[in-house]
Amino acid sequence: MLSSRWVEGRSGGPDDRAVRRAGVAVFVVFMLSGVDFASWASRLPAVRDALGLDPGQVGLLLFVGAIGSLVSLPLSGVVVDRIGERRTVVTFAVLCAVGLLTAALGAAAGVVAVVVVGLVLFGMGAGVWDAAMNLAGVAVEQRLGRSIMPRFHAGFSVGTMLGAGIGAVAAAVHASVLAHLAVVIVASTLAVAWAARSFLPIAPRHRVPTAVPAAGAGSGGREAPEAQQAAPARAGAFAGWLEPRTLMIGLIVFGAALTEGSANDWVSLSVVDGFGTTHAGGALAFGLFVTAMTAMRLLGTALLDRYGRIPVLRLAAGFAVVGLLVFGLVPSLPIALVGVAFWGIGAALGFPVGMSAASDDPVRAAARVSVVSTIGYSAFLAGPPLLGLVADHVGYRHALLLIVIPVVAGLAVMRAAAPLRVPAVPEVPDGAAAAQAR
């Protein structure tokens, strides 16, 4: 899976070898981010028991902890522009580790306030880490001239499965949350620092690439209008919030993030309560969703290269709508599981392709990715709890039908994700590019 063949360049020269190494490194960093997230999530039952919390209090704890991500993400573009993707990923991976270990210490001591502080730090680290590794992936994608962002996001999915598996084993052998996280998180952080050494240097992001991704050339046979081209490099750090194209990409990502996040939180419970099946049946439904999403992310690269962004995104949104309607309305569990698979396929590509679309102009990529990531994470963090409130009145399966609304809204503005025609500019020395970033 980590073979460099799937990030092959075209000339086979030293520069292509560096790009291949960078691609593998970005995949590893995505995977380790998933490991960290799932390591904590897999031990939530033990944390809940240690703190003596009821389900509502657990939800409030996670929501308060998520404030860290919402606060830090709008600033992620500034941070990456200042110190580059490599340093940003390593720095905020360390902050993630500090946050998770603080939360584990708080759980071991039975002090909720310490857990909250740890989760806020974890959220801050995870949000900026996510934005920076997406930018590192975009740099590789643009240098290759191929659409490979979905494969990086598949790495995150693989990491969540690996982290959840390790967490299940740790719980089965009655390892403490603190001991489990201390081993996994420290090892993960060291591996992130090692992998990030192979990232591409900061300068290429501030130059227009010589090869535009193939997804750009094939996006329905049309490119974005010239009027939608990039803003000047010296635009303010928050200028992306005033760009209609960036906000419409954010809406597309919002629908995809809500589609994915709601499944992570509710699909297993919806199957158990909605069909009266066992906990194992609920876990099977969640596993089916994750497997379908991961497979689509691995296959999505070929689809994007052949057909372009817009047709593939429309196809994915269609799968999501059909899957949600089938899951929410049919009375038969086997047919509903088919809907879960469609749901997973439909959730797979919106987030990674949105990151690529926000990064079409390398000069403004960091600021725009921070905007799109913030919008997407708001869906991840706030959407599922709100769906839980609706589920109290209409049931889990019917509440999930509300996700169809943002997905359809994303379909209405899908053309915004068409690649920009960014004019080539002369390359500048690395030192000058770094100065320009400041």
How are the SSEs placed, and which strands pair?
Layout: H1 14-41, H2 44-51, H3 55-65, H4 67-72, H5 76-109, H6 112-144, H7 149-172, H8 177-196, H9 214-217, H10 244-275, H11 279-307, H12 309-329, H13 333-347, H14 350-358, H15 365-394, H16 396-400, H17 404-412, H18 430-437
What do these coordinates show?
The chain is mainly alpha-helical and 438 residues long. The protein is built from 18 helices and no strands. Helix 6 (112-144) crosses helix 15 (365-394). The longest helix has 34 residues, at 76-109. The chain is globular, with a radius of gyration of 21 Å.
Offer a concise description of the structure:
With 438 residues, this protein is an all-alpha fold. The protein is built from 18 helices and no strands.
